[in-house]
Amino acid sequence: MTSPQASYRLPPGPKEPVALGIDPQTLQTLQELQQQYGDMVSLTQPNGRLAYFINDAAEVQRILARRHAKYRKGPGFERVKMLLGNGLIVSDGDVWRRSRRMIQPAFGRQNIHGLLEVMVACSERRADHWQTLAANNEDCNITAETSDFALELILISIFGPDYESRILTEGDNPFAFLSRDSTRDLSVVMKVRHLRELLTSIIEERRAGKSADQFDFLSMYLQAEDKDGQGFSNKQLLDELMTLIVAGFETSANTLSWVWHLISKHPHVEARLIAEATEHMPDVTTINTDALAAMTYTQQVLEETLRLYPPVWLFTRRCNEMDELENFDVPPGTDIYLSPFVLQRTEHYWPDPDRFDPDRFELSEKPKKDRPFFPFSLGPRRCVGEYFSFMEMKVHLGLLLPKFRMLSTSDKEPDLDLGINLRSAEDIFLQPQER
Ligand code: HEM
């Protein structure tokens, strides 16, 4: 009997079933598949479902952008549903479209510029702490520091003054556990429940008008309306706030942690970054959006870091309806695996791919279509927080790097922890010295 797949044009691939998932083993499997079969691979998963691993720049673009309506989110998202409900990252179809339209205006540049002061204040708090560490000759856990920075920033950006009055008053920051990826253990279930109760009470107070008019994401989300004039329900708002917190802090935190690690190993990059920061923002009063836009080398360093260490290292999709790629068919139900990590380190797109070289992102370099780069995804589901994240990372680096030299404490390259987010397997420690 011929298999139902026999009539489709499938790319080459192994005969035996192959297990893929958002886990460390999968990276090795994908790299081996690429080596053996090339940039388009088909395989059967242990549950019998057909899957494609696609490492071809044009086809990735086609699936994420032009043909995105034929795909929805794929395997692996079940694990985050407990945290994020049906928020923007996990929702699909009409639910996603409505939420995205309601939320998008909050991320307009003018609004994000309104958060610059918070970004500066959060960076200055790190400077105070690093000064103490340097004075006491103590190492700095840069993984924890960047995590604290990005978490505090996103929480103040969402809750404004309620961060101090309603969240810090809880004792230990009730959101801190989110940076650990153990979403199935029972204590986490309890913590999530507590968090949702806390957020519901903050939302209800805001709806009752108990706090003055203020500028933060929660206010903007409360004012958002769909095309029928309906706002978010409390449940929807809760899912969207949890999504914003989870999506908005770990990604930037991990990127910053890798940037500090890379800078500590590349003194010539460090020197150029300091020169640029000193030229465009010589002191706190000169930090503004024009200065940040002029920091093009800092932008290149961040992009090169995101090429090597894309926080979302693997995307999954499931095909909804028959699709045709350049030379192959995608039958409905096919799972798709796309990896910015693998693609952005593929030699024929990025020569000498493992080398850290921010000059690759100079504007005069080759046109971008020859160099696949999609750490924020592509198309309509592209990250809404991209502008926010570049701004926060530039403020953080521009303010801290001219003040502190961060010396590497180890010659060993950190191992990778490939969960939903790409992190270093162990925390990275650097030794701060005041300049
Ligand atoms: C370096 C920083 C960041 C990276 C690399 C990043 C990456 C991504 C990626 C790859 C996606 C799409 C995932 C997929 O389609 O499967 C995404 C979606 C999203 N991101 Fe980010 N992100 C970053 C920072 C942020 C920040 C700071 C925020 C919020 C302030 C944010 C909010 C979101 C949201 C809400 C979505 C869902 C969009 C949708 O599905 O319509 N992200 N991000």
Question: What does this 3D model show about the protein?
Answer:
The chain has 435 residues and is α+β, with helices and mostly antiparallel strands. It has one domain: Cytochrome p450. Helices cover 47% and strands 10% of the residues. It has 16 helices and twelve strands. It has helices at 24-37, 57-66, 78-84, 93-103, 109-113, 116-135, 142-159, 162-167, 186-207, 217-223, 234-265, 267-280, 289-294, 296-308, 340-343, 386-400; strands at residues 40-44, 50-54, 71-73, 140-141, 315-319, 323-324, 329-330, 335-338, 404-408, 416-418, 422-424, 429-434. The strands form four sheets. A five-stranded mixed sheet has the order 1-2-8-5-3, sandwiched between helices. A three-stranded antiparallel sheet has the order 4-12-9. Strand 10 and strand 11 form a beta hairpin. Helix 11 (234-265) crosses helix 14. The N and C termini lie far apart (74 Å). The mean pLDDT is 91.
From the structure above, extract its key features.
435 residues; alpha+beta; Cytochrome p450; three-stranded antiparallel sheet; 16 helices; 12 strands; 47% helix; binds protoporphyrin IX containing FE
